[in-house]
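Readers of this paper often ask what the protein records in our data store actually look like. Below, we set out a record of this kind in full and without editing:
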Amino acid sequence: MRKFADTIDLEQFRRQVETETTMAMCPTATTIEKNIPIYDGASVSDAIASEWASIIGEGAGVFVVKRAFADPGAIDAASEVFRTIIADERATGGGAGDHFAKAGANDRIWNSLQKLCLRAPDVYARYMANPVIDIACRAWLGPGYQIATQVNQVRPGGKAQAPHRDYHLGFMTPGQMEEYPTHIHATGPTLILQGGVAHCDMPVESGTTKLLPHSQRYLQGYIAATRPEFRDYFEAHHVQLPLEKGDAIFFSPALFHAAGENRTADVVRMVNLIQTASAFARHMETIDRTAMSRAVYPHLAALSPQGRRAVIAATADGYPFPTNLDTDPPIGGLAPESQQDILARAVEEGWDQARLDAALSAQAEKRIA
């Protein structure tokens, strides 16, 4: 029986990748640029979910939403907080680790989601009250998803990444990848959605993400992405798109991609990277969602219902397991109440802060094994 890695074939990969993205694959897109569907954020609604899911799974594997933020001031306010966090972390010697760049070459805020929420919950609520992000995440992952974000700021001269696939298998060595059965290579990408929000205007020369549309469909791609011949093919055939402040991009973690080199003299490229996990997956970061829920609660009532749904989804734990079923039994259903359920009920019933704090504390105590 042939080993999975022995079935890797560049010609087979080329036949899958060299596919034209047509309007039949994305009928509500405004246009297709370089094989990538482009959408207008103003026209996005829940009805688009199945189309976006099809693109991520069987289509181009990536799409862009222009003007994903109807409130550009939310981007500016968040950027200001992020710059303060970067300065503070640099001053204290933090923020040194990165996946690809040499320590200190660029700026990265790990767990920018929680840091923004706790540093400036009013800005966080305004920023995350974004139906486009919520709809994209639900389209691929369904309800109960959990967002994590990391800010990446690349200065002029910042080098490009090597082409790769992402979390989970993409963070392993080829030898480790080979230990996982074929079906994990197929199903792993269904648990994660990658994305990013442009926090400034970014011409291609600033190093916008290099992408290889349709490459997510190649089953052996996690191991293949580490091989020289596949990396050479990527460098010869990838595409890049300019992004404007407030644009968002979403793509399969299995898509071959890489950050580009910042060849400009004056553009400091800032992107808030989004990694959204299925309720059935785990993040790479530990996030204190109870603290975040408490911090953002006073700002939820003023949001639109759609915006509130997006903020609660980004903030609170949407999955009630694992828990201690002796102390936290499912009452009135098949599962206990999730943290998202408590936060939504608190807003609906007009709880004061003390009642919410008590409910969250009681839930946390019940979940302890």
